C-alpha cells in the first residue's frame, strides 16, 4: 500500500534541512519510501509516482512536517484540567486527595481523550508517566499512536497499588515491561517520580531494572525550589549531581523539567547522555522559572518539548509549547534573535525524537524512517502569508490548523477529524466516568 502526499510544502527536518516546495512524500506501509521536489531534472517525475501510488493526497500547499514529539505528559490527568489553576498549594489541597480516588476506568477514558486531542494537534509520539499505566498502554495500542509509557514510582501508596504500599510502580515494572517490550509502537519505560520522592534504594532498583531490560527511565528533576534546597542541605549537591553520584545515569534517562539546573549539571547531562523534556508552559504557568535551555544546547544536551500533564500545562499540543518557548526564552535572554523558528521546530520534532532515543526512526522525513507525518493546512486566515514556514508553525499556527496525521503509515486524522474514533463518543466516555470525581471536587471546595 503506497500513499503519495503531493503538492505540499515539505519541511524534512533532515540533516541538511531540505525543504521541497512543491514537494511530495511517498509512504510505503509504515515507512517513508521517498521525499522530494515535484520538479527537477534528476528526480522521478511526479506523474510516475501518481500513476503507481494506491492513494494520492493533494496537500493543497499545506505544510508537511515530521509528527510532533511530546516528550513528557501525564495523560490520565484530563479530569484535573482548569481545576485550581491559580491556587497556591493546589498539589496538597486538590491533586493528592483527588488522585487517591482515581479509578482505572477514569484513567482509561482520560487517556483516550488525551490521545485524541494530541493526534488532532499533530502529535504522533508521546512519553507518559502515570498510574494504571498498563491500562493506558492498552488504550494507546487501540488508538494507533506511538508512545513511551512508564508507571510512576513514588514513596507513597498510589491509587492502583493493590497492596496499598509505597513503591507499587517498582513492583509492577518487570511484568509491565515484559508485556509491552517488542510492541511496534509502544515502548515501556520505568518512571520514578522524582529524586526527592523516591529513596536511594528505590532509585538504585530502577537503574538495575532499566539496565536489565534495556528500557529508558523518565524522572522529574530539578523542578522544585524545595527539591534543590533539600539536596543542598542533605548532600551539598544538586539533584543532578546526586543522581550522577549514585550511578542513576548508567541507564538511559529522560529528565523532565531541569528548570534549576546549573553549573556542573549541564556537563553531567551531556556526558551521561541524559535527554531533557522541557515543559515551558507548565513551568512558567506555575511560576517555577524559565529553564536554562541556552546553556543546555551550548553543552550539547538533547532537548525536546513536552506539554506536561493537562493540569500543569492545560493544552496538549506543541504549538502552544513552541510559541511560549519563544516568548519566554527571548524575553529571558533579552535577545529576539536567539532560538530562531527553525531551532524551535527542530526541538518539537527531531529534538524530541533524540530525547526519547527514537532519532534513528522518527523525527524527520527521510527515506527509511517511520511514516509519522503531520500536515498543517494554510487555507485558514491565521496561516497567511507565509514568508518563512518555520516561523508560521511557531507563531501563526494553532492545533486547529492540523489537517491530517499519519502514525506508522496509518492515517489517524483526515480533514481535521479522527479516522477511527468518534470525538463525541470519546468525550461522552470521559463525562460518564467523571461523576464521582466531580462530587469530590465539590466536597473539597465546599470545605474551603
Ligand atoms: Zn510531569
UniProtKB/TrEMBL annotation:
Keywords: Hydrolase. Pfam families: Amidohydro_1. The keyword Transferase does not apply. One of its GO terms (molecular function) is hydrolase activity, acting on carbon-nitrogen (but not peptide) bonds. The keyword Transcription regulation does not apply. It comes from the Bacteria. PANTHER family: AMIDOHYDROLASE-RELATED DOMAIN-CONTAINING PROTEIN, AMINOHYDROLASE SSNA-RELATED. This is Amidohydrolase. It comes from Aerococcus agrisoli. The lineage of its organism: Bacteria, Bacillati, Bacillota, Bacilli, Lactobacillales.
Amino acid at each position: 500500500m503506497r500513499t503519495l502526499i503531493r503538492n505540499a510544502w515539505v519541511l524534512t527536518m533532515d540533516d541538511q534541512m531540505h525543504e521541497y516546495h512543491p514537494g511530495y512524500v511517498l509512504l510505503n506501509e509504515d515507512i517513508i519510501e521517498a521525499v522530494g521536489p515535484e520538479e527537477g531534472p534528476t528526480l522521478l517525475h511526479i506523474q510516475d509516482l501518481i500513476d503507481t501510488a494506491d492513494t494520492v493526497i493533494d496537500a493543497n500547499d499545506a505544510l508537511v512536517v515530521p509528527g510532533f514529539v511530546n516528550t513528557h505528559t501525564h495523560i490520565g490527568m484530563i479530569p484535573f484540567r482548569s481545576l485550581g489553576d491559580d491556587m497556591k498549594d493546589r498539589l496538597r489541597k486538590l491533586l493528592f486527595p483527588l488522585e487517591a480516588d482515581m479509578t482505572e476506568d477514569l484513567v482509561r477514558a482520560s487517556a483516550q481523550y488525551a490521545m485524541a486531542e494530541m493526534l488532532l494537534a499533530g502529535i504522533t509520539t508521546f512519553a507518559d508517566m502515570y498510574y494504571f499505566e498498563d491500562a493506558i498502554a492498552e488504550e494507546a495500542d487501540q488508538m494507533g499512536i506511538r508512545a513511551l509509557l512508564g508507571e510512576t514510582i513514588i514513596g507513597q501508596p498510589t491509587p492502583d497499588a493493590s497492596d496499598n504500599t509505597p513503591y507499587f510502580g517498582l513492583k509492577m515494572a518487570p511484568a509491565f515491561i515484559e508485556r509491552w517490550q517488542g510492541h511496534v509502537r509502544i515502548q515501556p519505560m520505568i518512571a520514578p517520580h522524582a529524586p526527592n520522592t523516591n529513596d536511594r534504594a528505590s532509585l538504585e532498583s530502577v537503574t538495575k531494572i532499566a539496565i536489565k531490560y534495556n528500557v529508558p527511565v523518565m524522572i522529574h528533576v530539578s523542578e522544585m525550589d524545595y527539591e534543590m534546597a533539600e539536596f543542598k542541605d542533605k548532600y551539598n549537591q544538586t539533584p543532578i549531581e546526586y543522581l550522577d553520584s549514585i550511578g542513576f545515569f548508567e541507564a538511559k534517562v529522560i529528565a523532565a523539567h531541569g528548570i534549576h539546573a546549573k553549573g556542573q549539571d549541564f556537563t553531567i547531562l551531556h556526558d551521561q547522555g541524559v535527554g531533557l523534556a522541557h515543559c515551558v508552559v507548565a513551568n512558567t504557568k506555575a511560576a517555577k522559572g524559565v529553564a536554562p535551555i541556552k546553556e543546555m544546547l551550548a553543552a550539547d544536551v538533547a532537548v525536546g518539548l513536552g506539554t506536561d500533564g493537562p493540569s500543569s500545562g492545560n493544552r496538549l499540543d506543541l504549538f502552544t509549547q513552541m510559541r511560549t518557548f519563544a516568548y519566554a526564552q527571548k524575553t529571558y535572554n533579552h535577545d529576539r534573535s536567539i532560538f530562531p523558528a527553525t531551532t524551535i521546530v527542530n526541538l518539537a520534532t527531531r529534538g524530541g525524537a533524540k530525547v526519547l532515543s527514537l532519532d534513528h526512526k522518527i523525527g524527520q522525513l527521510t527515506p527509511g524512517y517511520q511514516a509519522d507525518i503531520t500536515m498543517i493546512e494554510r487555507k485558514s486566515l491565521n496561516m497567511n502569508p507565509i514568508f518563512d514556514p518555520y516561523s508560521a508553525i511557531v507563531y501563526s499556527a494553532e492545533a486547529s490548523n492540523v489537517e491530517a496525521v499519519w502514525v506508522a503509515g496509518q492515517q489517524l486524522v483526515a480533514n481535521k477529524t479522527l479516522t477511527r474514533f468518534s470525538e463525541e463518543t470519546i468525550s461522552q466516555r470521559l463525562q460518564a466516568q467523571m461523576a464521582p470525581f466531580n462530587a469530590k471536587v465539590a466536597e473539597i471546595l465546599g470545605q474551603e
